[in-house]
Design goal:
Elements lengths: L10 H8 L7 E5 L6 H10 L3 E7 L2 H10 L7 E5 L5 H7 L5 E7 L4 H6 L23 H7 L2 H10 L6 H12 L7 H11 L4 H20 L1 H15 E11 L2 H13 L20 E3 L9 H6 L7 E7 L1
Parallel strand pairs: 1-2, 1-4, 2-3, 4-5
Antiparallel strand pairs: 5-7, 6-7
Helix pairs in contact: 1-2, 7-8, 7-10, 8-9, 11-12
């Protein structure tokens, strides 16, 4: 069952915006392969005369999706790497242009239930690495970062008010014992904050989000892949991004806005201005899941889809 690994969010809406039917030979990059649902839908829509590059840092995702997409394997190249290295990956494959780039920035169901550190609902080691080749673990952040560094991470990446209080508590606790597991962290938070169950879960989600972003360098990788897309997308090529929290969405929104503006030309020096507009935005407002989709998959509730076409 596909939903054992990941339930895709805004699947049909994303693929409809991603594929430009006027382009005959499609070269599409799925930068966040995950459970392979977006890639499968691309294969079903295009049927022939296309190439698909599927990227994921997580070997479990690649193993699952290779089996799922086996009948389309002739058209697919699977890459175990970080989508932030898009330029390096495409250069390695000797691909100088693409017609589409799709990113689903959410966690997979598998990561939440089976991989260490991602969920505060089960006790596991504080790992949180999507790519196990990376050296930095979440427990390293908690046990080795300075109080000021922790305050910055929780304030910026978790958008937690008075993040200094949390940072101080972590530093107080780690002087007595190493913070090794997810439940060590949950217990630490419980001992410091007296808040209701729902608000407590929301608070934990922000803490775990901040750690995950730091461990996987998520925001910098997102900025890098967006920047690379400008150079590699052909005219008419499209980018579609599904984000799940305000930090990611703000980066995508800002990137598309900045690259869809045209520099004004001075009437006094008409030859001096360069045309800066690179994209036509396809989603005036972000596309969000229907009430029915959220009912079937509550994790979809915060998803926002933005898309644009290269000029």
């Amino acid at each position: 069952m596909d939903d054992e690994y990941h339930i895709p969010v805004l699947l049909n809406e994303t693929i409809a915006l991603l594929i430009n039917p006027e382009i005959n030979e499609q070269v599409i990059v799925d930068g966040t392969l995950g459970g392979g649902s977006y890639s499968e839908c691309v294969c079903q829509k295009l049927k022939h005369n296309f190439k698909l590059i599927c990227i994921d840092k997580d070997l479990n995702a690649l193993k699952f999706s290779k089996a799922k997409l086996e009948k389309y394997s002739y058209n697919i190249t699977f890459i175990n790497d970080n989508f932030g290295k898009l330029e390096e990956i495409l250069n390695r494959l000797k691909i100088d242009s693409i017609s589409g780039l799709v990113l689903d920035l959410g966690l997979s169901s598998y990561q939440l239930t089976d991989e260490d550190g991602f969920s505060f609902m089960k006790d596991s080691g504080l790992d949180m690495r999507a790519d196990k080749r990376d050296e930095l673990l979440a427990k390293d952040v908690l046990n080795e970062y300075s109080e000021k560094e922790l305050e910055k991470i929780f304030g910026e990446y978790g958008e937690i008010g008075n993040a200094g209080r949390l940072a101080k508590k972590i530093c107080d606790v780690r002087r007595k014992k190493i913070i090794n597991t997810t439940f060590d962290l949950v217990d630490l938070v419980k001992s410091e904050y007296k808040i209701g169950r729902k608000d407590f879960f929301d608070f934990l989600a922000k803490i775990f989000q901040a750690l995950r972003i730091e461990v996987n360098n998520e925001l910098e990788n997102l900025k890098m892949v967006l920047s690379n897309s400008v150079d590699f997308l052909i005219s008419g090529g499209r980018i579609a991004v599904v984000s799940y929290h305000s930090l990611e969405d703000r980066i995508v929104k800002s990137f598309l806005k900045e690259n869809s503006l045209r520099e004004s030309v001075s009437k006094y020096r008409p030859d001096s201005a360069s045309d800066k507009k690179k994209f036509e935005i396809l989603t005036g407002k972000p596309v969000t899941p229907s009430a029915q989709e959220v009912k079937l998959n509550p994790r979809a509730r915060s998803a926002k889809l933005r898309a644009a076409e290269k000029i």
